[in-house]
Structures are given as C-alpha cells and as structure tokens.
Backbone:
C-alpha cells in the first residue's frame, strides 16, 4: 500500500460528547462545514494520519442522526437540490422525532454547520407551530406560563390580532 | 399530510435526553429567531406570548410577514371589517417594537389581491363589491408602513398588497423602493400612484431578480420600462396592469428568463385605442406570456432559448385593415420560432386564417406541443399550415375545440375536402405526432373531416381523445365514437376515445 503520494484523507473519526467514536468517510463528513474545515486544515498540513475530531456538544444519539442525514445527502451530492426523492426522505426523517430530539438535532446542525439540515429543522418546527393555538403550542412544546396575570393581559392586548 | 407535519408531544419518559422544563424557549435565541422568522408574523407573535423567555425574541426576528386574512374587506361580511382596527394596532406594535438591525423580508397584505378585486366580483364596474369595501387607511399610515422596511439593512424581499379605498394624489408609492440595492424580490399589488417614483432621475435595483407588478398605471412616462432596464440581473417579470393610456411597451433585458404581460385598459368596455409599439428585446427569454390588444408595430428580438410561449391578442387592430393586423401579428410570432410549447389564443385563429398563411409562418424547429385555443373561426387552414411548419410536433391540442359550435357550418363557404386533397402530408405526421386532444368537440362534418385527415396521415399517432359537450354536440357519444373508430387510420395502435363533459 504505497499511497505516499496522496495527502488526502478518505476517512475521519468523530468523537461524541459521551466519548463514542464514529468512523466517517470524507464525502459524508463534508456535508458538515465544521468537519470539512477540520479535514481541509489537516490536508493542508499534509498529514496522512487518521484524524480525530471531538464534538463536545453532540451526544452519540444525536450524532448518529446527523450522520444518517449526511450520509443520505452525500449520496445525492451530485444531483440538483430539487430531488423529489430526497425531499420525501427529509420529511420522513424528521417526522419520526419528538420535539426534544428535534431541538437537539437543530442545535447540533447549527454547531456542526450543516446548513441544509439546520434549515430543514427550522422549517419543520415553524410548520408545526403554524396555525396552532397558544394552548396547543404550550402543551406540545411543554412550555410553562411564567407571566403574572397582569403581564398576560397586557401582552394579549397588544397582540389581540394574533389571537383572533 | 397535515397531521404528519405536527410534532409528537414531548413525553417526559425520554430518558436519554435531559428533561427540560421549557424546551422551546431553551433553544438559543439565534435559532429561535431563525425559526420564528419563517412563520407568518401573527403566528410568531402568538408563539412569543408563551413565556417571558420567548417574549423578547419577537422584536429580533428578521422577516415580517403580515396579512389581514381572514378579513376580506367585503360588505358581504361587515363584521370582519370591525376587526380591522385590531390589525392596525398589531402592525403598529410589531413595527414599533422591532429591534433587529436586519430585515430580510417584509410582506404586508391588506385586503384582497388585484385578481380578486378585478376579476371575481370586486370590480365596481361589474356590479360586484362597491369600492367602499376596501380598508380605511390614511396615506400617512400607509406611507409609514411601506417605508418601514426600507430603513433596515439587508432587505431582500418586499411584497406589498395594499388596495386603497379612494386613491388620490396623496397616495404615493415611496420612491425609495426603487433605489433599494439589496432587493432581490419585489412584488407590488397597489392602487398607489407612481408619480413620485417616476420623477427619480435614476433607478437602481442591482440585485433584483423577480419583479411582479399589479397596478393601475396612469401615465405614459415610461417609468416601468425604465425600471426594467435598470435591473441588470432581472430574471422574472410579471406586469398585470390597468392603464389609462398605454402607447408603447418596451421590455429590454438581456438577463430576463420569464416574461408575463397582461395589459388591461380602463376603457376596456369601450373599445380601447391601439397600442402604438411593442418592443421586446429579451434574447435569453425562456418563457413568454403576452396578453394585450394588438399593436400597430412590433419589434421583437429573436429568442433562441424559448421554451414556452402563450400569445393572446385580445382584439385585431382598430380602424385598420385586416391585412395590417395580420402583418403585425406575424411580426409578433415570427421571433418565437425556437419555442417548444406554443399556445395561441384570442384572435389568433382569425388573424392567421387566410389562404397563404403557410408562406408567412416561420418553421418552428423545436415545437413539440401546440395548443390552438379559443376559436371564433375554424382552425383548419391554420392547422394545416402549422403542421407543415412544425416538423417535430408531438402533441396537438384544441382546448376550445377544433371547430366553433357558435358559428353554423353553412357560414363557411370553402369546402374543406378540396383543400385537404391538394395538400401534401406534413412531415411531423410521419414520425412525431403522437397525441391529439380535442376538448369541446361538436361532431359535425367539418370536424370529422379534419380528424379523418389527421388519422389517415399520422403514422405514429398513439392517442386521439375528444371531449364532447352534450349541450352543443350534434351527434350522440356512442355514434360519434363509432364514426371515429371506423375511420381509416394510418396508425393501427392508436386509441380513440370520446368522453362526455357536462357543465
């Protein structure tokens, strides 16, 4: 195996916050700008070693999901962005999660600079809020009401239109 | 599908993730802002009344999308108008509280849109809604709302739908809109005056890609055409306008890909005057839709990349001979010769229905789909000419029928037979023509003769489908189907169907 001529890496190892290791091929990792940047930096230095990228903010549960997304999107990387099959897959992918998971996934996508996943999560959450009543949102998202009665009356008054 | 989009409720037994008391508002502000900016502002505002943690996020969102719906300012539902003051308070509160330095999108829709106002009963002239059903807004109020987004950094999308009860000179569209350098999408559906804007010495929309304009335009000062020329990367242009007096159309844009023009005149009911000149210089256009009365002159650039064209001359030229109208119409369609999908409507059949038409049509090298729509005339002469000029035609459709049911057959003196017998077989019939669709078929002799001609010569035809309207058909469905089935045809595998339509 004389591959000394090439300083390009084929795989990287990513470490989750709970210390699990994930071997990720470069094309998949490149879906995340954060990972891509690390790879590019190492390649510039000309290293041939497998590099380890620790992600202190992402648990292995969530990292598995992000990587599942990246893997699928890497397969379609050469297609145009409007691929219907991929869109359908995206929708099915997010549909499975409860809000807590979706929330963590959104933050991980933001942290790992996976822009398309971040946009997707935000749009999904926005769509699920649309047209719900305040009570429904409170219930679904498990949000406590911390207003005083006076504050609540004021805010409802200001936004009377929104509560029609 | 809707229920799919809904999130599952958070169940606290999900042990793997840390259980948080207040999950939604625990997202970092930056992400909350991102999410809430994707919502209609009304929903964002409602979500922000959930807790103190969320309340401070609303002023930081970077897109405002405010819409009066479900208020429709219609006297039929007067109770809804009473809600309008709440709407005004809401808009004022949101705008006043806005803190973000950036505003990427601003959409404000007050009342029903142009199409609905003018074509679905809200047009005072048609005896629908009187104008009093439009919202009460002072020019100052409107101006305050419209100029608001223009004071922020990074405005990319501006969409305004603001009908005015009694448009006057003081209802001016702020001219700053037309010098907003960050703007990429501009959609205006307003009754406001353009006078102030049109006095601007220079317009500058260097990033504008999409321009949609639904408006009343008064003057012939060329503002609109100047505006188009000042958008160097404009790709998509829609102008649906009512003009007091329209003398010329001048669309010049090398970057333009889509062009949709629909001109109405305020004096539509009384015969409007002819347009003097139409200049269209858009060499890279892919889609064109043109609906207007015919003009006295056309200067149209060749469009090599054209994919679809819909051409609808509303009327032949007024006070001019038929020959002049015809010459101008040919000048309009000749530059479209690269088109792949062509729809001709309105007076097209009348304008092209002359004996030597064949010699005047261009060769449509790429035309695969041809729709000959709305006939006050038989399409037959034009049809044969078009078949000859369209060597690769695959689909031929007659959305309003092949012959007119409104005109008695005896009206036409020239017999079809001799004409057909003298004609050579168009090349597209040999190798390409696969589908023929005739909606509103009548079943009279002329129609059947034409169908027979097509069946006899279309070697690779796969499907002939005819839709019959019971009220107007002269032949019973089964009888018609039998007649058609028994016609000699060149393509044995071609399926023939007659379907009934009822109003």
Residues:
């Amino acid at each position: 195996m004389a591959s000394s001529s090439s300083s390009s890496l084929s795989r990287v190892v990513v470490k989750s916050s709970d210390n699990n290791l994930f071997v990720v091929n470069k094309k998949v990792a490149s879906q995340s700008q954060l990972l891509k940047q690390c790879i590019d930096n190492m390649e510039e230095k000309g290293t041939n070693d497998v590099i380890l990228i620790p992600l202190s903010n992402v648990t292995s549960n969530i990292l598995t999901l992000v990587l599942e997304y990246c893997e699928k999107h890497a397969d379609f990387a050469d297609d145009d962005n409007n691929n219907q099959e991929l869109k359908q897959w995206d929708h099915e992918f997010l549909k499975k999660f409860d809000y807590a998971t979706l929330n963590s996934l959104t933050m991980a996508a933001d942290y790992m600079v996976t822009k398309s996943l971040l946009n997707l999560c935000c749009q999904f959450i926005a769509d699920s809020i649309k047209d719900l009543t305040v009570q429904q949102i409170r219930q679904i998202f498990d949000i406590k009401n911390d207003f005083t009665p006076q504050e609540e009356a004021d805010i409802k008054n200001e936004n009377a239109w929104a509560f029609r | 599908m809707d229920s799919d989009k809904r999130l599952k409720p958070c169940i606290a037994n999900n042990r793997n993730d840390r259980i948080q008391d207040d999950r939604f508002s625990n997202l970092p502000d930056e992400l909350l802002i991102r999410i809430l900016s994707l919502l209609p502002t009304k929903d964002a505002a409602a979500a922000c009344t959930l807790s103190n943690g969320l309340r401070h996020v609303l002023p930081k969102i970077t897109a405002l999308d405010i819409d009066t719906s479900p208020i429709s300012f219609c006297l039929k539902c007067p109770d809804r108008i009473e809600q309008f003051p709440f709407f005004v308070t809401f808009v004022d509160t949101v705008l006043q509280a806005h803190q973000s330095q950036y505003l990427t999108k601003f959409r404000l829709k007050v009342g029903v849109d142009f199409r609905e106002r003018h074509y679905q009963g809200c047009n005072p002239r048609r005896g629908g809604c009187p104008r009093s059903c439009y919202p009460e807004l002072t020019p100052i109020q409107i101006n305050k709302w419209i100029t608001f987004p223009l004071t922020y950094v990074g405005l990319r999308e501006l969409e305004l739908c603001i009908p005015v009860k009694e448009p006057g000179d003081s209802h001016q569209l702020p001219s700053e809109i037309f010098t907003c350098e960050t703007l990429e999408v501009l959609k205006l559906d307003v009754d406001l005056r353009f006078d102030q804007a049109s006095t601007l010495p220079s317009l500058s929309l260097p990033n504008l890609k999409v321009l949609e304009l639904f408006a009343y335009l008064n003057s012939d000062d060329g503002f609109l055409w100047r505006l188009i020329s000042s958008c160097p990367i404009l790709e998509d242009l829609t102008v649906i306008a009512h003009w007091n007096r329209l003398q010329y159309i001048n669309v010049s844009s090398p970057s333009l890909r889509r062009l949709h023009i629909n001109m109405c005149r305020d004096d539509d009911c009384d015969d409007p005057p002819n347009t003097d000149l139409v200049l269209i210089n858009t060499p890279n256009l892919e889609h064109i839709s043109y609906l207007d009365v015919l003009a006295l002159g056309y200067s149209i650039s060749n469009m090599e990349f054209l994919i679809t064209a819909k051409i609808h001359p509303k009327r032949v030229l007024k006070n001019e001979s038929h020959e002049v109208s015809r010459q101008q119409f040919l000048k309009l369609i000749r530059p479209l010769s690269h088109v792949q999908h062509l729809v001709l409507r309105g007076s097209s059949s009348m304008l092209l229905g002359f004996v030597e038409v064949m010699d005047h049509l261009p060769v449509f090298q790429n035309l695969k789909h041809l729709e000959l729509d709305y006939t006050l005339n038989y399409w037959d002469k034009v049809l044969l000419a078009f078949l000859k000029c369209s060597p690769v035609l695959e689909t031929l459709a007659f959305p309003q029928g092949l012959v007119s049911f409104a005109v008695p057959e005896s009206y036409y003196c020239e017999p079809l037979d001799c004409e057909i017998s003298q004609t050579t077989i168009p090349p597209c019939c040999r190798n390409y023509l696969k589908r023929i669709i005739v909606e509103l078929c009548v079943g009279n002799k002329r129609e059947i003769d034409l169908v027979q001609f097509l069946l006899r010569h279309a070697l690779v035809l796969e499907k002939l489908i005819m839709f019959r309207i019971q009220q107007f058909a002269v032949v019973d469905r089964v009888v018609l189907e039998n007649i058609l089935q028994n016609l000699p045809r060149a393509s044995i595998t071609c399926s023939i169907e007659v379907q009934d339509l009822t109003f």
